[in-house]
Amino acid sequence: MNVEQLYQALKKSQEAKGIYFNKDKDLVFELLESLLLNKDRYGYMACPCRLACSDREKDKDIICPCVYREPDLEEFGACYCGLYVSKAVHNNQSRVKYVPERRPPEKIC
Amino acid sequence: MNTEKPMLYALSTCSHCKSTKKLLNDCNVEYDYVEVDDLEGEERKAILEDIKALNPRCSFPTIKIKDTVIVGYKEKEIKAALGITE
After folding, report:
1. What ipTM does the predicted assembly reach?
2. Any idea where the Glutaredoxin domain is (chain B) (predicted)?
3. Minimal Cβ distance to B15: which of A49, A98, A105
4. pLDDT tens, residue by residue, A37-92
5. What is the pTM of this model?
6. Do the Cβ atoms of B13 and A49 come within 8 Å?
7. Residue boundaries of the structural domains of chain B
8. Which of A21, A95, B44, B63 has the fewest CB atoms within 10 Å, measured from its CB?
């Protein structure tokens, strides 16, 4: 799968859930390329902004879309990487705030 | 005077880390950096311990500028720590 195909597939599946790509398309494509790189590297699309450990079971919380996406979208209007934004941000009804890391540090290995 | 170079702990795939690098480059700052996702074994373990000492959440980017530790791509804070005024 190339980056354009990934973009189209995710756009469709995520928008159906009311979740949108960031309007910064350069950022989105850069992150999608990193996701494909991580898929090659680890065998799964680990979050590009977090340190994966090559163990799918240990990294399952950070396989994109990560389990932290939903609370981050709700609280900050964007996911940790900035790949996805909430409907309110997409519609310019609210702004993206700085998204701090919420993954517990003990999960990093 | 503390003349040590800023140290950037980054991931090769992280957008915030890339933005931070670009900022430091644009400011013509000399800095050291390490991309932790490219490390393995003991080397990786040792760097992770260094990062946790600066930033217990061990998130990226973590930047040490003199005695200031900045977590995340925070342009204003990074520039302030570098002594860059606009």
Report:
1. 0.91
2. 7-70
3. A49
4. 999 999 999 999 999 999 999 999 999 999 999 999 999 999 999 999 999 999 99
5. 0.93
6. yes
7. 7-71
8. A95
